[in-house]
Structure formats: structure tokens, C-alpha cells
Write a structure and sequence with these properties.
CATH superfamily of the largest domain: ANL, N-terminal domain
Strand order of the largest sheet: 2-1-11-10-12-13-14-15-16
Helix content: 25-40%
Distance between the termini: 60 Å
CATH class of the largest domain: Alpha Beta
Low-confidence stretches: 563-590
Structural class: alpha/beta
CATH architecture of the largest domain: 3-Layer(aba) Sandwich
CATH topology of the largest domain: Rossmann fold
Number of helices: 17
Mean pLDDT: 86
Largest sheet: 9 strands, mixed
Shape: globular
Length: 605
């Protein structure tokens, strides 16, 4: 519990505990011992009964009893394939019902599902999957990875179709349409591939007897991937039965928006621990219904939310930005947008500015929702969520002129602290690198012992994120520590420049990146986006920013001015070749770049 007298150090005082029940902090240690994840979930699903479907998939309702039956069919199928304890099975594809069932089946057999990063290169996929002999791949993405999952490298590749869990009528219609368009999968050309229906049919022909696997402490239960912000390349993150169950019980004790009987929209693929945990394991554990939608795109996000009407869902700030731009556009056009069903919309990942966050909540309220957008902060290394905003709980000590939103208070069982570059813990409202410890921490990075040793130090995760913690225990995340430059011995964080620029010039967006030049010098690139319908003198704006950057003693930079819709995540994706970046709207060039020459003058590119 909260100490009577604050020491000034968050890790000692734990001020966030005043917002939880007395025993909540022990929840992460109170999960059933000696049981697999599937043992725990099967018992819970049976107790929950079939009143609330486990999954809705293109209109097909999968009950909790049917879900158990499906998992047991997959257990038989993988047992037939000779899957052994601690054997890795590769999973590659978007969110699908089958991937949730296969996760549970492999857990029952003490095997390890490895959710592959979908945008990985062939070389990276081959490296990460080299210890596997069995893979599960979605049919629609087969052409992308056919050179990875070859007969020479994989004994069996189970091809999952997006139609496999559809209702029989819809499945027949879609398969017929695909056949007419010549999209039918050719198993004769891919000799190591087998369909879901074939593998399940074969397994049903063998004995129902599947030998139980003795439980073993600290056995790896899953490998998910991180984006690589703390290291180059793909990072496979190994989690155990214990760390995953600890996360489920700790998040349940946090009393978030996982409410029995409600629906949650699932679009993010399960390759990241945040989606695996927050969009699959937590909803299923909480007697919710997962609406699984594999067709994830920014363009369809508004349509899916307004048609499925989920109470809860999670995505990045960039996706929410696009969603609310569409909401605003429709309101301006005189349409009525109903979001009264929204009771647990959450934001993670890239986050957003304080102004954008308020704009989103204003629109939510205008469209009938009484629940604001909830911010959270997660790490793959602690199996997803580390902190989250709690409805009705607000800090009384938010720092003045704070440029970022808080990401709530730590989940029960977590101990958090911020540290300077020498490793000294810092007091409240002081920025430093966030360190985290909890029972949910990863076992380590897959085949990366050196990276594990540098990240997981003395029982604490060194996150690489610049954060602060206020006297009420609320966490504020500013950006990556490495997103900085050193000028005259002083470290300057690029997101500070971006935040101050956005606020000073009333911009919709601003992002600053550093780019290493061929001559060894570092160039800064700033992306700025104006609000719609707000006229700005472009040259005057650029000149003012030029003077502003001079205060930081920064020279050698470029500024790109673009029109909305735009956000930092989108810009970053689209501007790998900075010199060739252009943006058109209604056939007219609207992107303008200015380069500062050696004599200090601005040159329009």
C-alpha cells in the first residue's frame, strides 16, 4: 500500500496503489500455479457457458463450447504431426480465429507458437524460423513468403484460408468467387502444404488419445515480436506460462474496460504481445466477444468501427487520427455519426499530442459516447500493457505545460522508476529513462543473449523511453532516449523540438528526425502539417521556424510542409527517400520543401 510519508522516489512510495483495491498489487502473483494457459482458460470457458459468444467472424458466432472443441481438434492435429514439447511452430498472418485456437493447442502440448513479423524481409523470416519444421500461413499472403516456407526447409505448412471460420453459406460463396477469379490455392504445386480441413480430417481418423505433457516451470509459452526500436532488426520476445498468466491476472485486478458481455474489435495481428494480450487473451478471459476482422487498413477503420459497433478496441494514435478526421468530415457535411456504443476505445503505440487527444474526446462526446479515449503504455518485454488510464481517476499533479498526455498509472504488480544516464533513480516530475519490474517480464529475446543482458538488468527492464512520474503515480512518456542529438555537450531531444514547434506555431503535426549523411554529418528533417482550412503564410512560417531552430544552435536541416490528412507515423513510412518525397491533393503539388544553404538563406526545392 501507499506509504504514509512520501520519500520522493516512485519505486519506494508506489503512489498509484491508492487507486486500487488493497490486495491488487499481489494479483500478478496469484494466478494458479502448476497449470498451463490452456488449463486455466478451459476451466474458465466452461464456467462462463455459452451465453456470450467467444468469437464473431463475418457473422459466424463461435460459442465458448465450440471454441474448446476447436482447440481440442488442433491439439490432436499437432500431436499427429509429432509436435514435441518446446518445439517452435511458426505462425504468419493477420488476426484470425484459427491463430487463437492454435495458440491454445500448442500451449497444451508445451510447444511454442512464434508469431512472425508480417513486414519482415525474406532473409529475416528465414533466420527467425530456421529452428521450425512446421508453419501456419494464411493463404492470401502465401505468394509473399513461398520462398521462405519451402519443402526443403519445412516438413509441413498448414494453409489457413480467411474463409475457414466463416459460416458454410458465406464460405461457399467466397470460395466460388475466388475460383472464378483464378485465386484458388494450388496444393499440387506446393507439396508440403496442407489445408485446415485436410489436417483436421486426418487427425480425426487417429485415436482420440493425446498423452498429457508434464508441467514444467518457466517453460516458454509464446514468442511475439517487437518493432525493433531498441535494436536493429526483428526481436523475438519469449514469454513463459507464468509471465503471461501473471499479466492476465494483474490486468484483471486493474479493473479496466474488460466488461463481461461486451464486444471488442480485433484488427491488429497477434504478432505483438499487446494485441495478443489486450485483444485476445484478456477479452476471452473476461467473457467478452472478439469481433475478429483480418482486413486491417487505415481506409477501412472507420467503416469497421461504425458497422461492428464494438464497445472496446485498441489501435495506435495514427489510426485514431485518421478515424476522427473522417468523423469530423462527416459531421461538417451534416451527417449524424453515432459512437454511443464506445465504452473502451484505447490508444497505444505512437500516441498523440495533448491537443489531438482533446479533439478526439470532444468528437467522441459529440457523437454520444460518455467514455473518453483511454491512453495506455505497453512494452513487448512485459507482455503488453504496463500502465493505463483508469476511468474517473485523474492526477492532481500533472506537470505544467506538459506536452504529452499521461498514459495512466502502472498496472498492479508493476514497480516503475526513472533514472539518469548514470543509473541513479530520479525523483517525481524528473525526466529519465523508465525502468520496469513485474512478474510479467519476458524470459528474454529469442537467440539474442547479449541484447537480453543489456535490456533485462538485475530484474528490471531498461525501456529506452524518456519518461517522468508525478506524485500521484501517473506516467508521462515523451519519446525514445536515442531520439536525440548532443550539441556542445548538451543532449537535445528531437521530440522536444517537435512539441515546442507544434505548440508555438499552432500546427496540427510536427515530427523531427535525424538523418545520417554520407559525409558523416547529421541532418535534421522536420515534418510539419497545418490544420485544415487554416491559412498560413508558408514562407513566413518557414522563416520563423528557421530562427526558432537557431536558438538550439542547429544548422543543416530541412523542413517539409504538407497538408492533412497526415500524421508522423504515415509521414515516416512514406518518406524513406526524403529527396523524392512529394504529396499531391486534387492533382496539385502541395508538399513544399525548404533547404537552408551554407550562407543561411532558405532555398525552395
Amino acid at each position: 500500500m501507499l506509504t504514509d510519508r512520501q520519500t520522493g522516489y516512485p519505486s519506494v512510495d508506489k503512489p498509484w496503489l491508492k487507486y486500487y483495491r488493497d490486495e491488487s498489487d499481489k494479483a500478478g502473483y496469484s494466478f494458479p500455479k502448476g497449470k498451463t494457459i490452456w488449463d486455466v482458460y478451459k476451466e474458465r470457458l466452461i464456467l462462463q457457458g455459452d451465453e456470450v459468444p467467444a468469437i464473431l467472424y463475418f457473422g459466424n458466432r463461435i460459442s465458448r463450447s465450440a471454441y474448446i472443441r476447436h482447440v481440442e481438434e488442433w491439439i490432436k492435429a499437432f500431436a499427429m504431426l509429432g509436435v514435441r514439447p518446446e518445439e517452435i511452430v511458426v505462425l504468419y498472418g493477420p488476426a484470425l480465429p484459427e491463430f487463437t485456437e492454435i495458440f491454445m493447442a500448442l500451449n497444451a502440448l508445451a510447444a511454442i507458437p512464434y508469431f512472425m513479423k508480417l513486414d519482415s524481409s525474406e532473409a529475416s523470416l528465414k533466420e527467425e524460423s530456421k529452428e521450425a519444421r512446421i508453419a501456419v500461413v494464411i493463404e492470401d499472403m502465401w505468394d509473399t513468403v513461398r520462398n521462405v516456407f519451402t519443402p526443403a526447409d519445412f516438413e509441413t505448412v498448414i494453409i489457413v484460408s480467411a474463409t475457414d471460420s466463416m459460416s458454410p453459406l458465406l464460405k461457399t460463396f467466397v470460395k466460388t468467387a475466388n475460383a472464378i477469379r483464378g485465386k484458388a490455392f494450388s496444393y499440387s504445386k506446393n507439396t508440403n502444404c496442407i489445408s485446415v480441413s485436410q489436417i483436421l480430417k486426418k487427425s480425426n481418423q487417429v485415436s482420440d488419445q493425446v498423452h498429457s505433457i508434464p508441467f514444467k516451470d518457466d517453460r516458454i509459452a509464446a514468442i511475439t515480436v517487437s518493432s525493433g526500436t531498441t535494436a536493429t532488426g526483428v526481436k523475438g520476445i519469449m514469454d513463459t506460462n507464468e509471465s503471461i498468466l501473471a499479466s492476465i491476472y494483474a490486468m484483471t485486478a486493474a479493473e479496466g474496460r474488460y466488461i463481461s458481455g461486451r464486444k471488442v474489435l480485433v484488427e491488429l495481428p497477434f504478432m505483438a504481445s499487446t494485441s495478443l494480450n489486450c485483444l485476445f487473451l484478456m477479452p476471452l478471459f473476461s467473457n467478452m466477444t472478439m469481433i475478429i476482422e483480418p482486413r486491417m487498413s487505415a481506409e477501412t477503420w472507420y467503416k469497421h468501427i461504425t458497422s461492428y459497433k464494438p464497445a472496446a478496441t485498441i489501435t495506435t494514435g495514427a489510426y485514431w487520427d485518421i478515424f476522427f478526421q473522417e468523423v469530423e468530415r462527416r459531421i461538417i457535411n451534416g451527417e449524424k455519426v453515432d459512437l454511443s456504443f464506445a465504452d473502451g476505445f484505447s490508444m497505444g503505440g505512437s500516441g498523440t499530442s495533448t491537443q489531438k487527444y482533446q479533439w478526439m474526446n470532444d468528437l467522441l462526446n459529440k457523437c454520444g459516447s460518455s467514455t473518453p479515449m483511454l491512453n495506455g503504455y505497453g512494452l513487448s518485454e512485459v507482455f503488453g500493457c504496463m500502465s493505463a488510464q483508469k476511468l474517473g481517476v485523474h492526477s492532481e499533479h500533472t506537470p505544467e505545460d506538459c506536452s504529452v498526455n499521461d498514459v495512466g498509472i502502472p498496472i498492479p504488480g508493476f514497480v516503475v522508476s526513472v533514472h539518469d544516464e548514470q543509473g541513479n533513480e530520479l525523483k517525481y516530475n524528473t525526466r529519465g529513462e523508465l525502468w520496469v519490474s513485474s512478474p510479467t517480464m519476458m524470459h528474454g529475446y529469442y537467440n539474442k543473449p547479449e541484447l537480453t543482458a543489456s535490456t533485462l538488468v538485475n530484474g528490471q527492464i531498461h525501456t529506452g523511453d524518456l519518461c517522468s512520474i508525478d506524485e500521484d503515480g501517473f506516467v508521462y512518456v515523451y519519446g525514445r532516449v536515442q531520439n536525440s542529438i548532443v550539441i556542445n555537450g548538451k543532449r537535445i531531444f528531437l521530440f522536444d523540438i517537435a512539441d515546442k514547434t507544434r505548440m508555438q506555431f499552432s500546427l496540427a503535426e510536427c515530427m523531427v528526425e535525424k538523418k545520417e549523411m554520407e559525409n558523416g554529418e547529421t541532418e535534421l528533417v522536420m515534418y510539419i502539417a497545418q490544420w485544415k482550412n487554416k491559412a498560413i503564410d508558408e514562407k513566413l512560417l518557414i522563416e520563423e521556424i528557421s530562427c526558432y531552430l537557431s536558438d538550439y544552435r542547429i544548422s543543416g536541416y530541412k523542413v517539409y510542409l504538407t497538408a492533412l490528412p497526415a500524421n508522423p507515423a504515415t509521414l515516416k513510412t512514406r518518406t524513406n527517400d526524403l529527396e523524392g518525397f512529394v504529396n499531391y491533393e486534387n492533382g496539385k503539388l502541395i508538399n513544399i520543401s525548404y533547404t537552408k544553404t551554407k550562407d543561411g538563406k532558405l532555398k525552395r526545392a
